[in-house]
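Entry 12.
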Amino acid sequence: MSIPIGLLVALFAALWVLARVREKRLLAERPPPGRLLGLRGQRIHAVERPGSGPAVVFIHGNPGCSLDFVDVQKRLGGRRSFSVDRPGSGWSEREPSALSPRAQALLIRNALRDTGVAEVVLAGFSFGGPVSVAWALEFPEEVKALALLAPVGDPASPMKLDAAQAMLAWPVWGWVASWTFAPAVFPLAAPGGWVKAFAPLPVKVDAAAAASPLIGRPTCLWSTAKDWAALPATMGELAARYPQVKAPVEILAAADDHVLGPTHAQALARGIPGANLKVIPGAGHQLMHTHPDEVVAAVERALARI
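Predicted 3D structure (tokens):
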């Protein structure tokens, strides 16, 4: 009985070493394009474009990374902006614990204080939506406007984890799996995920190729699963506070979103006073890649309402 157990332990040890080697190689080949801000172990990676006015802060989905907004940031012209990696995503660090949207908002907000940012306009995509709303509720004097892009927002329609993600969200075992065999399996599952994310439109190959290695990092795999698993417990409380959002809100929804559907955006539009909702016909979930001009227009409408 001890021989099979010993072989199993050896296999997991070998997979762990392989995952560490791949991680080091990835980070060496792809150094962060921005800055790491905040406390060690919780540092947030942010890509800044200089400019004037309240800083626009782009917060990606789950999974996702700061690279998702490269094109959109360029199109904003002379507006100061940041695209951040949420804790555990992209190049950002994360301690192995569950984080609510509020906790993630606090980590990002506190890290950005190192740059001197005092007033922000939040542009939250998908999972970045509840993070943005939580930030606006916690610091209403700092958040001047919101642009919510295909956002998560309906507690009655929780995201359903597939079997692999559900396993990665398990206590202890999920972390072990993320640092052993999950990174090796990820390249096989990723293409199907991209098809769903872009459907009914074709996948933007360059965007998928840029983000996939970062999304497949062990910490990112675990963080993605853990964030989806933890979200339902907090969404009801967050949705109950939608009427307390004071900042002007622009919401962009994709009519043919295969990931969330437009019901999440509609729930936010119903709950937040004065929120404006625009639905893009024929669009899929990845709006910043397929409809960057519409995303920029939503941000500019939010800025105009300050």
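Annotation: The chain has a mean pLDDT of 93. The CA atoms of residues 89 and 220 lie 5 Å apart.
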